[in-house]
Design goal:
alpha/beta; 9-stranded mixed β-sheet; elongated; Lyase, Ornithine Decarboxylase, Chain A, domain 1; 8-stranded parallel β-sheet; 29% helix; 17 strands; TIM Barrel
């Protein structure tokens, strides 16, 4: 444990205002309520929840999700999966292709302590994975990534999915378990009826692809889609077995403003006002190295209306619409995180707060795990 983390741990029970800044805070009451809401919605519609961990990167939070009913987790990168497996979490989907000798060797090692499912969308990748797992005397679970509208990775729905399933079945080192897709084209739609229609159409393509595989005699255990930006509609679609909703546990300005979700904010950055050069200007000690502004700008809590906010490397500058004596130099202010996915990884720890007091300090163990 480094000095900074040890110092934060020694503050458990103290008010959050006692923390040094910048500090990443999560409100436990809000986060736990968000977790409970997702889990309850999934139960209501008979789908499993396998939440993405790419935002929080923290085993303690993953275990809270599993305790609330999640069947496992989804990771974006192999490195994140390794962190979660080291913490004792076995059921892991890696929603990505694992390519190259170095990564495939790590994946074989991961299979000794977890039960990973990996996404595939090419014969070349199948051949590489199959050869490695046959040499290891093991079988790897693979799901076919299907392009249901995102147009990034993935094979097209229908016949291409069935053809790839057939290829998987012919390889002794692999076991076909299902299909996975992401209906990201629906996330920014504000009209709920239209969003539901787009999600329904995308999920239907995924479910039809799964059904074609079943009718051809292949076992389909996993039909996975869904994220915060398409919740709750993704959990309501026929043929879907599980959803990956992850960022909603924190919510943030990006999800609320651009994806039109109604989950309350749980994640904030605690900052200190370090300069008041004019009656309308406030300078804080948290900039781009503490919080991102790529998808959405952070939003201060409890300040008078602002006309502008700007982030530099180590500072944020807020211009108020009207002069104000507060906050004064040394005062602490929280900012709602702009986008959790590109903020949490900047921090070594998350300080968990309940009722304004520090309850726990969690190391962001997946920080930097981009390989």
């Amino acid at each position: 444990m480094d000095t900074r983390t040890a110092s934060s741990h020694s503050m458990i029970g103290q008010p959050k205002s006692a923390l040094d800044t910048p500090a990443l805070l999560v409100d436990l009451d809000v986060m736990e309520a968000n977790i409970a809401r997702i889990a309850a919605t999934c139960r209501k519609h008979g789908v499993a929840w396998r939440p993405h961990t790419k935002a929080h990167k923290t085993p303690e939070i993953a275990k809270k999700q599993i305790a609330a009913g999640a069947i496992g987790i989804t990771c974006a990168k192999l490195g994140e999966a390794e962190v979660m497996a080291a913490a004792g979490i076995r059921e892991i989907v890696i929603a990505n292709q694992i390519v190259g000798q170095i990564k495939v060797a790590r994946l074989v090692a991961l299979a000794d302590r977890a039960d990973p499912i990996v996404c595939v969308d090419s014969i070349a990748n199948l051949n590489e994975l199959d050869a490695a797992f046959r040499r290891a005397g093991r079988r790897l679970k693979v799901a076919i990534e299907v392009n249901i509208g995102m147009s990034r990775a993935g094979v097209e729905p229908g016949a291409p999915v069935l053809a790839l399933a057939r290829e998987i079945a012919n390889r002794a080192g692999l076991r076909f378990v299902g299909v996975l897709g992401w209906e990201s084209q629906a996330t920014t739609i504000a009209d709920l009826a239209e969003k539901e229609r787009v999600v329904r159409d995308a999920a239907a393509k995924l479910a039809a692809s799964a059904l074609a595989c079943k009718e051809a005699g292949y076992t389909v255990e996993v039909v996975s889609c869904g994220g915060t930006g398409t919740f709750p509609f993704c959990a309501q679609q026929p043929g879907i077995t599980e959803v990956q909703v992850g960022g909603a546990i924190f919510s943030d300005m990006h999800y609320r403003t651009h994806y039109h979700v109604d989950f309350p904010y749980a994640l904030t950055i605690l900052t200190t006002a370090t300069s008041r050069p004019t009656p309308t200007r406030i300078v804080f000690d948290a900039g781009k190295k503490a919080m991102s502004g790529d998808a959405a700008m952070p939003a201060p809590i409890g300040l008078p209306p602002a006309s502008a906010i700007k982030l530099s490397a180590e500072h944020s500058k807020i211009e108020l619409e009207q002069p104000s004596e507060t906050p004064r130099i040394g005062d602490k202010v929280e900012l709602v995180v702009g986008y959790s996915d590109t903020t949490v990884h900047l921090h070594e720890e998350i300080v968990a707060v309940r009722g304004g007091r520090i309850e726990a300090v969690w190391r962001v163990a997946g920080r930097g795990k981009i390989k």
